[in-house]
Write a structure and sequence with these properties.
disordered N terminus; about 475 residues; 5 helices; Thrombin, subunit H; six-stranded antiparallel beta barrel; 2 domains; alpha+beta; six-stranded antiparallel β-barrel; about 25% strand; Mac-2 Binding Protein
Length: about 475
């Protein structure tokens, strides 16, 4: 995580996933592991940009044949000047018309299926008929918004998301809404109210005294809410830790007990490989690059949690591994995955979930965040025995995409964090682990550790999967494999 010698760098860029911490298997993985083995040969790095290693096409001009035109727009015979000019004008007009037609057609894409990029009209989303290939248009009809967990429902009648009025709301409706999102009824925490203000707007209001199937079927549209309050819904008691973080960590230190209770260590075939984050008693968020190749099989994985010591605490085998279907191994776009555990995690001060961010929580540059993991403390080093953490700041994508930084390799599914001056960063072995921030006294999962050019190098901050972008995907997997 910390590079005490930032001058000791490789001469080529390295994606974090190519530096898994492959420790020897041991009969005692609760500590006392033998020194880790690392190859002395650096694996070839993938390009920062999908076209970084490709050469620009070479255009060979067509030979000019006597008696013909080398170009319609530059005729060689005087008697063809007017005809060629007219043809050029027509061609340019046709191109402009095509571009305008494309713009107006694509600008009408009101809702988009994330699994296929297929366009769905606003009136078709949550209308009771499946339009998207994976059914997300009917599976994602309620959501949580902002740091107050404001419950919203999608209205196909109005073609937009509406705040749910708290009139006649009770815990039965709360449990139904949480289950519709993908949570288990057993994790339901509480329902509260949030002031909406004296504004004239439309609301989703209850029709019945108790749920009847999906919550969506019990709601209708109204232009009034008598209490002017919306529902604040907590589907799980998340984002709490057991220690203060008022003091700043400079360069990375051993974490204190219960400071990051959602941190887990992922072992593939008894070898420490990646990190991850607890989001429910049965679900772990990690990076897609951690589960490539043979690691895609659930049977090879074991998850350790509840301890600062690598391989300590409690463990669970994995029932299912789900990598994002659009993950790109070269660009690291959509670098996120989920693991469903075979046995349920019993929450305690040492093991509890981090909050998934809600819609509308768009993190800004310079936002203070924290990283944690058992990864290497310097580039090319071995994994550590005890969990370490460090404070970093978010870096906006415009800065991160500068030629001197990552040269347009950062997409909307990624978020940068660290310091352009270097010195503090995640490193090999931290992959899949959490990037978190504190808002409203709760801790939120901003990203999962994805890649970087070496560790803690100047102008090469860490790159993380942007969890806010993946909310619909995460909830759909939780619903599908409930």
């Amino acid at each position: 995580m910390y590079n005490p010698n930032p001058q000791n760098v490789y001469s080529v860029p390295v994606y974090d996933n190519l530096g898994f911490q492959r420790d020897f298997p041991s009969s005692n993985i609760h500590g006392h592991l033998p020194p880790p083995y690392r190859s002395t040969q650096l694996p070839p790095p993938p390009p920062y940009h999908p076209y970084a290693n490709s050469q620009p096409p070479v255009h060979h001009p067509a030979p000019v044949v006597q008696g013909t035109k080398a170009s319609l727009c530059s005729p060689r015979r005087k008697n063809n000047v007017l005809i060629a000019f007219a043809i050029c004008v027509l061609i340019v007009a046709a191109i402009i018309a095509a571009v305008l037609a494309w713009y107006f057609v694509t600008s009408k894409c009101e809702m988009k299926c994330w699994s296929s990029s297929q366009c769905v009209s606003a009136s078709q989303w949550c209308d009771g008929t499946v339009q998207c290939p994976n059914g997300e248009d009917e599976a994602y009809c309620v959501r949580l918004y902002g740091p107050e967990f404001l419950l919203q429902a999608y209205s196909s009648v109005k073609g937009r998301w509406l705040n749910v009025c708290s009139d006649k709301w009770n815990d039965n409706f709360g449990k139904a809404a949480c289950q519709e999102l993908g949570y288990s009824a057993s994790t339901y925490y509480t329902s509260g109210t949030t002031w909406l203000g004296y504004t004239l707007d439309f609301y989703a209001v209850l029709n019945y005294s108790r749920p009847n199937g999906k919550l969506q079927t019990t709601l209708s549209v109204s232009d009034s809410c008598s209490t002017f309050t919306g529902v604040s819904l907590r589907c799980i008691n998340c984002g709490l830790n057991g220690s203060s973080t008022s003091s700043r960590i400079v360069g990375g230190n051993i974490a204190s007990t219960s400071k990051w209770p959602w941190q887990v260590g992922l072992y593939s075939n008894l070898r420490f490989t990646c990190g991850g984050s607890i989001i429910t008693p049965n679900w772990i968020v990690t990076a897609a690059h951690c589960v490539e190749g043979t690691n895609a099989y659930a049977s090879v994985w074991q998850v350790y949690y509840g301890s600062l010591q690598k391989g300590g605490g409690f463990s669970s085998f994995v029932e299912k591994v789900i990598a994002h279907q659009n993950y790109d191994t070269k660009t690291k776009n959509n670098d996120i995955a989920l693991m469903k555990l075979k046995s349920t995690i019993t929450f305690s001060s040492a093991a509890r979930p981090v909050c998934l961010p809600n819609h509308g929580m768009n993190w800004v540059a310079d936002k203070q965040c924290w990283i944690s993991g058992w990864g290497a403390t310097y580039e090319g080093g071995s994994s550590t025995s005890y969990l370490r953490d460090a404070s970093v700041k978010l870096i906006d994508s415009t800065t991160c995409n500068k030629p001197s930084v990552y040269n347009d390799a950062i997409t909307s599914t990624m978020i940068c964090a660290g310091y352009l001056s270097g010195g503090i960063d995640t490193c090999q072995g931290d992959s899949g682990g959490p990037l978190v921030t504190q808002t409203n006294n709760l801790w939120w999962l901003v990203g999962d550790t994805s890649w970087g050019n070496g560790c803690a190098n100047v102008n090469k901050p860490g790159v993380y999967g942007n969890v806010t972008v993946f909310l619909e995907w995460i909830y759909l997997q939780m619903q599908t494999y409930r």
